[in-house]
Amino acid sequence: MRRNVRNISIGLVLALTLLVFAGCSTNEVNKIDDLETEKKKVVNLYTNRHYDTDEKLLETFTEETGIKVNVVKGNSDELIERLDREGKDTKADLLITADAGRLYRAKEKDLLQSAKSEVLDKNIPENLRDQDNEWFGLTVRGRVIVYSKDRVDPEELSTYEDLINSKWNKKILVRSSSNIYNQSLLASLIEINGEEKAKEWAKGVVKNMARDPKGNDRAQATAVVAGEGDLAIMNTYYIGKMLNSSNPEEVKVAENVGVFFPSQNTSGTHINVSGIGLTKHAKNKDNAIKLMEFLSSEKAQKQFAEANYEYPANPSVEPSELLKSWGEFKTQNINLSKLGENNEKAVKIFNEVGWK
Amino acid sequence: MIKVRDIKSNINLWSILSLIFIILIVLPNLNIFINIFNESNENWNHIKEYLLKDYIINSLTLIMFTGVFTIFIGTSLSWLISVYDFPFRNFLKWGLILPLAIPPYIGAYTYNGLLNYTGVIQSFLRNSYNIQVNQKYFNVMSIKGAIFIFTIFLFPYVYIITKSYLEKQSSSLIENARVLGRNSMETFVYVVLPISRGAIIGGVSLVILEVLNDYGVVKYFGIPTFSTAIFKTWFSMGDIDSAVKLASILMFLVFIILILEKFLRGRKKYSYTTSKITPISRKRLKGFKGKLAFSFCFLIFSIGFLIPTLQLIHWSLLTYKDILNIRFVKLIVNSLSIALISSVLIIIIAIVIANYCRLKNNFLSKIYSKTTLVGYSIPGAVISIGVILFFINIDNRLYWVYKMINKNSAKLVLSTSIIMLIFAYIMRFLAIGYNSIESGFEKVGNKFFEASRTLGMGITETFIKVDFKMIKPAILSGFILVFVDILKELPLTLILRPFNFNTLSTKAFEYASDEMIQEASIASLIIIIISVISIYFFYKAGNKEEV
Known about the structure:
By secondary structure, chain A is an alpha/beta fold. Chain A is built from 15 helices and 10 strands. Chain A has helices at about 1-40, 50-65, 75-85, 100-110, 120-125, 180-195, 195-210, 215-225, 235-245, 250-255, 285-295, 300-305, 320-325, 335-340, 345-355, and strands spanning about 40-45, 70-75, 95-100, 110-115, 135-150, 170-175, 230-235, 255-260, 270-280, 310. In chain A, strands 1, 2, 3, 4, 5, 6, 7, 8, 9 and 10 form a 10-stranded mixed β-sheet that branches. The radius of gyration of chain A is 24 Å and the shape is globular. Chain B is globular, with a radius of gyration of 25 Å. Chain B has a domain at about 40-320: MetI-like (MetI-like fold). The two termini of chain B are about 50 Å apart. Chain B is mostly helical. In chain B, strands 1-2 form a two-stranded parallel sheet. The longest helix of chain B is centred in the first third of the chain and has 42 residues, at about 40-85. In chain B, about 50% of the residues are buried. At the A-B interface, helix 1, helix 3, helix 8, helix 10 and helix 15 of A face helix 3, helix 13, helix 15 and helix 16 of B.
């Protein structure tokens, strides 16, 4: 008994010492890393993407340029908050996040800087990047209407604005307004139609909702097939993800809905991007710009976009077969920075009209 | 002369360490309180006008209904298990603790995946019998669903505490009631409920604190509550002032609940007529009644543990090829090592403070003892704000030291390191370790300590040679409880972890919020397996202690 206690306590002490040493030694390694950062060819990337194909792509970049890419993954909002907190001490050179609204927020917080590169200017169209070149869109998704193939004739569908038509009463499925994709959609309508009309629209959609907003984008498509409503507002790539799901039932759901690109004869379909920005306090600026150029290049764009079933931002690269099967579409012709500028207004309108 | 001696006897290693620990726990919370009086900004006015009402109503609805249901389920189960004998009772006795091994957020997405349109149940009905069910009855992603999830995964708190109370304390009263001709129902309502009121309320207040702390379930179901609101105003609106204001309202709510608990529990104390503790003689339920008791317990066990675990196993089989790789091993190592380090530290700190408090037993030590509980009652979202502000402050003050050590040192050293997360764990879970150690010391009493001191050993020597050995079971069970809690913890880990640091729980949550439920299953299963093993050891340790 007594020996037992002694053994346990000795064991605990040993374990603790080991852990402390382990902690110190990793610190040591970090320090070495810091010093090497200055001499060696590295670039540090904060990203919200986590696809295995991305890693392969970055390996290719390292092979071609000899620049090692350190990746830190996290949720977009948290990464921005973190970058803000680290200030000029940050190790991050690049930030990749989904949604232009977030990139705008990073810019507003003074976390990004302008990246001058002819290659980027050539590869990324003007409306998909920041006016001051502080961020560049890399992949494009549309926020579209998904409809029940059984119950809805696509001829009846027309514009986002038409969704408040009384014929869709109790038919519309859409997720919560706390989601940034909805915020950006409303922000674009504020830009196109003005604040008052946008508020009317939000109010009208709430009135036509089949149920209180709940679940994610996939859940909306599922609810359409389950018969809870006829139309769902969702991002294009979720249909791609569902078609490739490990759950065969989800594949069936995706096969039973149609994709409709709204507002083709008017202002165009709402699009958004995942984008990349050079951080204000980047220590490896040249390497960072090289990686940005690489990711916008024809070679990388296809793989980068297809990892998440998105459209490439570089217009000279063709989208995947699946996306091509949905046909080409006209996009909203506004600079995506506006999504960020109008974000606060959009959030407040949602709260005011009771879009949960 | 006397004074000098007093001071000398008051200042020793234990008292100094205790003081330091207590100050470290209090400081980050002061940060939050100081911010309450900041001028309210435009965001705050907007929140107040359109959102605050929902936050309050939703949070209150959740805690009220979950509270009532967990009392109902937890008490009735503990009554059945401790007073009756029926088939498989021995297995169910510990099986009914197992729902605690499943963190509510994992339970939430498992049940959603199970019940929704593409889930196993509906697809089976649809594909085999062509039955289309009304989605309304299968939707867990609502406030009702959240109440269900919280109830079914948190009721063991009420069950464990009430059961151990009934087993140890109530036999004479229950037997008297029986002898006096009360039937089971009457005994339950008129005797068991009133005497175990303290235990039940103790259990249910743990449940309520867990519900208020939860971020995973309400976020996944899209229910606006205080914890999601704090995250949202902080991260999405980038407004830490308003987040702090929300946090302070939440703290106020918790404060009221704790006072209410004291009030409800404290008025009357039913203590025992005799010091002899006799276990209840259990009544054997035969035939139909036995089956009924078994069915009820087994139903709860299935809903709370068996069904979600089977579903997770099924999903793991679908996805293990893509998910299980070397990076996964790292996740496990991360989770285990941070839980281990933090638990060991918590136990050490708990021992230091508890030992100091029992030896001093004065006003100051009572304050110390209460302070250790602060962290557990404050939701993770609030703690994380306090801890971050605190660490950035420290880093700013220590910058010159960092520069002395390394000329190129960054300014934020501690606040970007794992130390911050460990610190937050300690703040939050110290209460659990402390309670366990304190009750261990209480059982032992001071006699052995005094004897040892009389025989010439110092406090520290006595502790190592005498006390430590005697409170070993308490140390072990405290350690296990803390370990499991840290393993399952979500909100603190999510916010405070350093870069590149993922744990099983953050990974599971990331997958789930990325709408990849099947992919989240393996991380979830591993958490559950480790928790089940730990709970088993805890249960065994508890049994040994009783004997």
